[in-house]
Design brief:
It comes from Crateriforma conspicua. Keywords: Membrane, Transmembrane, Transmembrane helix. By secondary structure, the protein is mainly alpha-helical. It contains 27 helices and five strands. Among the domains are: 118 residues, no CATH class; 107 residues, D-Maltodextrin-Binding Protein, domain 2 (3-Layer(aba) Sandwich), CATH 3.40.190. Helix 2 crosses helix 11. The chain starts with a helix and ends in an 11-residue tail after the last strand. The C terminus is likely disordered.
């Protein structure tokens, strides 16, 4: 009961601090963007995300990264914003009413409400009300966050992937830090996805695309397996695509506004993008380079210098902590990748031999590209696949021909150059084909090859729809009909896949079935929740007069629902956590495995020599767990054991994973019977205890 009370108390503290931060950030955003709902929403989210990263970087660098310090700092920033930036007098943003006089506008806004509601329902059903099951989330996205909470330090190396940039993981931290468990981790990518829809819509507004086609573009981007899977996990490819389009949108606003203001929002998006993951650096540099060229062409050296200065400042503030940490701890900012020319040790080639052939530039051939095309069609649906292919193809003539001859179409040229640059980045991205040389394992799973290029899909879709809208007359009408048919197919396929009624695309359906296999009777919740949320939204927008008269009652009702949801989530998370993951991973719960190990420590340190070790941390994050990065030799195994001094070692009996990262651990344990006692108590796992760590009364052979 105490845990539930604490979670409810933290909810109040969280709501107050976040409310102050959001209201202050909205005042700042209102000075930077037009008086439009999606524009304000997108700008506010970018500012809030930047504040989260700044606060985390500051306290993480000092080693004082405690949840309460983090939350109070956000509240202080919100108060400062409210004092520095007075409220605008432009009134509420336009675009709030759903039922307008125009039938087309009513249909568009109703469609928008249904699209957003379906995403929220998807997250509530498969993200918040289910335990995490995504491979990468269990391997490092979630464990990294839990290690931060345990140690209050961004520099700890307890997770094998401690070195990855963590701007998206900080969003997870924002949702779960302070609570007794990670039960709200499923909300990580919800607002990232909503930000993507907003910036896609805003980018197409700049291209004068009609509202119906803007809605079609948003549906096309969102009705993909990448968005559907990452909405309910903690993966970060969705964040890369979102921040790429956000940076492009706000940068063009700055260019089109004759550079009246400093490009704060575009630079923030660039800084955040730099800190998502390594391959995102390429997309960030593409935006920086293209905008610099356009600024030089239209405003001269002064505008270019302003743009580059803002970008460098944002990168240092919003991403510098990750690369500086790697440099301080391992001597290379892109660890494990080093540069021998600069005297930096390079472990990447040893960890992934032949990895340079995992890119399409070096490893691609006709057969590879044929399989890749089918993967894109299967994972992204017909409209996004066609939009991506069309965008890439038309970017070449638009980028080259209209650069000089059609100055009025400079926005299309801008999008074309971004698409060309993004195509080059995707071609050079590692692991698109495989992670182990010669296996083509990533291409065989299809989803992974596509998610690495989802940023290209997003910007190419924007270019494709902008190009279609640019063509008037019969050609434009024909293209509009084609787009409508393809988007309709996407919606139907997306809905039927989510409800398990079709096997297309196969990979996505397998993932969804694994998530919801213990709730097969609840498949109907997804469409019902979508309709319910949309109706609530419509009634709220149309009945704003009633709401203003009963605001206190509505606020109390909402607060009651939130408190009930927090209490229920807290209780169910801790009650069923061990049993859920033991059914997936072991014959018994981790706690019984640890008890059976009989070590002479109340809180033993566990060395997890397997991949998806998140469940071993415990529902309260109560266990001290480390996962080594790379142990290619028996000497490396001994070195890691000596460094971490574990009380218990948990590994596979037989490591069948492609990378064979921990294949030598069982051999090393067997070679040292005088030092370790094996306890086979965890199904397919081998559990070993150093003999000097055993309880003194343990005399078992």
């Amino acid at each position: 009961m105490f845990v539930v009370v604490w979670d409810l108390f933290w909810t109040v503290l969280w709501a107050v601090s976040v409310g102050l931060l959001v209201s202050g950030s909205h005042r700042f955003a209102a000075l930077q963007v037009p008086d439009r709902l999606t524009s304000r929403f997108a700008a506010t989210l970018v500012v809030v995300w930047s504040c989260v990263v700044l606060v985390a970087s500051f306290w993480g660098f000092l080693g004082k990264f405690h949840p309460w310090v983090f939350q109070l700092s956000l509240a202080v920033i919100g108060i400062a914003f409210r004092r520095w930036f007075p409220p605008t007098r432009n009134g509420r943003p336009t675009g709030m009413r759903i039922f307008s006089k125009s039938g087309r506008q009513r249909a568009v806004r109703l469609g928008s409400a249904l699209m957003v509601s379906s995403m929220i329902a998807h997250v509530l059903m498969y993200g918040v009300s289910r335990y995490p099951v995504d491979w990468d989330s269990l391997a490092y996205h979630l464990p990294i966050v839990d290690h931060w909470i345990q140690t209050a330090d961004l520099f700890n190396q307890r997770c094998a992937f401690w070195y990855v940039p963590g701007n998206n993981e900080l969003v997870t931290y924002f949702w779960v830090a302070g609570y007794s468990g990670d039960f709200f981790a499923g909300l990580t990518n919800l607002f990232v996805a909503l930000l993507l829809l907003c910036v896609v819509n805003e980018a197409l507004i700049d291209a004068r695309v009609p509202a119906v086609m803007r809605l079609a573009a948003c549906v096309s981007v969102s009705a993909t397996s990448v968005v559907s899977r990452q909405l309910i996990s903690q993966e970060n490819d969705l964040a890369v695509a979102t921040l790429l389009v956000s940076a492009a949108c706000f940068a063009w606003r700055w260019l089109a506004d004759n550079r009246q203001r400093l490009p704060y929002l575009a630079a923030m998006s660039i800084g955040l993008l730099f800190g998502i993951k390594y391959y995102a650096i390429g997309y960030a540099l593409v935006v920086v380079g293209v905008v610099a060229v356009f600024a030089l062409r239209t405003g001269g050296w002064k505008s270019t210098a302003t743009w580059l200065t803002c970008c460098v400042t944002a990168i240092v503030l919003l991403a510098g902590v990750w690369y500086g940490r790697n440099w301080l701890l391992e001597g290379t900012p892109l660890f494990p990748k080093g540069f021998k020319v600069l005297g930096m040790a390079d472990q990447w080639d040893a960890m992934r031999p032949g990895n340079r052939f995992s890119t399409l530039m070096r490893g691609g051939d006709a057969e590879i590209f044929r399989k890749l095309s089918w993967a894109w069609a299967e994972q992204d649906g017909p409209s996004t696949w066609l939009a991506t292919m069309t965008g890439v193809c038309v970017s070449i003539p638009i980028g080259l021909y209209y650069w000089w001859s059609k100055p009025k179409q400079s926005y299309l040229v801008f999008l074309a150059w971004l698409t060309l640059g993004s195509t080059c980045v995707y071609i050079m991205t590692p692991n698109v084909i495989e992670t182990v040389f010669g296996t083509q394992n990533m291409l065989a799973m299809r989803y992974h090859s596509v998610r690495f290029g989802f940023a290209l899909a997003a910007i190419a879709t924007v270019l494709c729809f902008a190009t279609v809208a640019w063509h008037r007359g019969r050609l434009g009408q024909f293209l509009g009909i084609v787009v409508a048919v393809l988007v309709g197919m996407d919606v139907i396929l997306h809905a039927t896949v989510a409800m398990g009624l079709t096997a297309w695309p196969t990979m996505f359906r397998i993932e969804m079935k694994s998530i919801a296999r213990d709730a097969g009777e609840a498949w109907f919740f997804w469409p019902l929740a979508t309709v319910d949320i949309a109706l609530i939204y419509l009634i709220a927008c149309e009945s704003k007069g009633w709401l203003s008269r009963h605001m206190r009652t509505a606020g109390i009702a909402c607060a009651g629902l939130v408190f009930a949801g927090v209490a229920y989530a807290s209780l169910t998370w801790h009650r069923q956590y061990e049993s859920f993951y033991s059914a997936r991973d072991t014959r018994s719960t981790w706690q019984s495995t640890i008890d059976a190990a009989m070590v002479d420590e109340s809180e033993p340190r566990i060395m997890a020599c397997f991949y998806r070790y998140y469940s071993l941390l415990g529902s309260y994050r109560q266990r001290d767990v480390v996962r080594p990065l790379y142990m290619p030799t028996l000497d490396a195994v001994q070195q890691e054991i000596h460094q971490w001094q574990p009380d218990i070692i948990v590994t596979f009996h037989d490591d069948r994973h492609w990378t064979k990262t921990y294949a030598l651990v069982p051999e090393w344990i067997q070679n040292h019977p005088e030092a370790f006692r094996q306890r086979d108590t965890a199904g397919r796992f081998l559990v070993a205890v150093p003999k000097h760590k055993e309880k003194s009364h343990d005399v078992s052979p």
